[in-house]
Amino acid sequence: MTLNILFLGLACSAVASWLYVATIGHLGGSRASIFINLMPVVAVLAAFFILGERLGALQWVGGAAAIAGVYLATVSGHLKGASQEAAEPSRP
Q1: d(CA 67, CA 73)
Q2: CA-CA 20 to 30 A from 41: which of 49, 73, 78, 90?
Q3: In whole angstroms, what separates CA 53 from the centre of its chain?
Q4: What is the CA radius of gyration of the chain?
Q5: How far does the chain reach from its first CA to its final CA, in angstroms?
């Protein structure tokens, strides 16, 4: 039992931290921080599928709002960058 707790505490935390740092390195801090908003959604979905928890209408609406917010934040960033690139003349 003690080894299980140590494994969960050390190995899983280390893997999660490593993945988080790698994602920040790949996406950049500002883009990676947007996806922090999906953590509650993932936790609730894990509880739904793994633990068999029941979700009410407000949980579904909240999850949809969080996903929509992340989507809009990432899409608007792409659109903003594309419009700025189109507005600037290309330099040789």
Answers
A1: 10
A2: 78
A3: 22
A4: 19
A5: 65
Task: Identify which of 30, 34, 38, 31 has the alpha carbon closest to the alpha carbon of residue 67.
Answer: 38
What are the tens digits of pLDDT across the range 37-70?
898 999 999 999 999 999 999 999 999 999 999 9
- Give the residue ranges of DSSP H helices in 1-92: 2-7, 13-27, 29-34, 39-50, 57-87
Distance CA 59, CA 44 (A): 8
Q: Which two tokens stand for residue 37?
A: 């908003």
What crossing angle do the helices spanning 57-87 and 39-50 adopt, rounded to 10°?
Answer: 140
Rounded to an integer, what distance in angstroms lies between the CA atom of residue 75 and that of residue 38?
16
Q: Helix or strand or coil: residue 25?
A: helix
81 token code pair: 């960058």
